Amino acid sequence: MEILKVTVPKHRYYAFRKLWTEVFVPVFYQMKISPHLHAKTRKVELQTKANTPVNNLKKCAHFLHAFLLGFDLGDANPLLFNDDLCIESSEIKKVKPVRRGHASRGLLARLSDKGGKRKSAVEISTNTRILIVGSKLHIIGLSANIRAARISLCRVILGGSPAAKANSEGRPRIARLRDLVCLACSCLWLCPEKLIKL
């Protein structure tokens, strides 16, 4: 029997308690893990049962981590059932150093665009989910798709290239990455034999 504790940040605690039943149901019934929410310490304790598969504890921890970062439950839910999905976080400052406050706001506005058009266009073209929180970017998806989304977002941040241009350059890259998927063993990850420099 294994136990893993996940701390709930203060700013996400109210939303977490409000949606506790939606978090509890897939974790308890489908993943065979019993979660306990401790209100005083603001921690979620994940405990395995006798019939729990080995990787389920790690999957539930990733699911909770994604939800606590700010993703919707619908976006975080596939982390429970797909082994190949992962979360990647990075800061905008690593792509382009910003010294003044208004410049960072300009970068965030350039990323999201009016009504989130640019962000959703990159999400659709790369088949990922992107979350912008402050100066941080969080991406959920397959590792190859995350790489393509990162390249598109970096182009938008650095050059301010329009969404259509960033996406049109991202689509062929995704197509090339899909061609590299190994069909012999029908796996979703890239085979080392087929890797080429992209």
UniProtKB/TrEMBL annotation:
InterPro entries: KH_dom_type_1_sf, KH_PNO1_2nd. Keywords: RNA-binding. One of its GO terms (molecular function) is RNA binding. Pfam families: KH_PNO1_2nd. GO terms for cellular component: nucleus. Residues 90-166 form the PNO1 second type I KH domain. This is PNO1 second type I KH domain-containing protein. It comes from Escallonia rubra.
